[in-house]
Give the backbone structure.
Amino acid sequence: MGFEVDGKGYEIVVAGDFSTRFGIGCELWEIPSRTHIAEIFRDDKRRQISMAVFISSDIPLQVLEALIQAFDERVGREFYTDDVPEG
């Protein structure tokens, strides 16, 4: 899902992590530099939703709102409980 804000290109992708965490989230990337900017991750094992930002420069609010909307629409806030490892 690509879009542009203030002349900069962005892409939001859905990605799962089952090696160090157990869940799924949406990653925000700047295009064309392929810089990983931020992510919202739903950790089904910890039953926690968190956001991480990986750059020190400003991110337009419109871009963060698009990331949150994509997370809600494509991933959701409801935790997955089947086959979640203990501990």
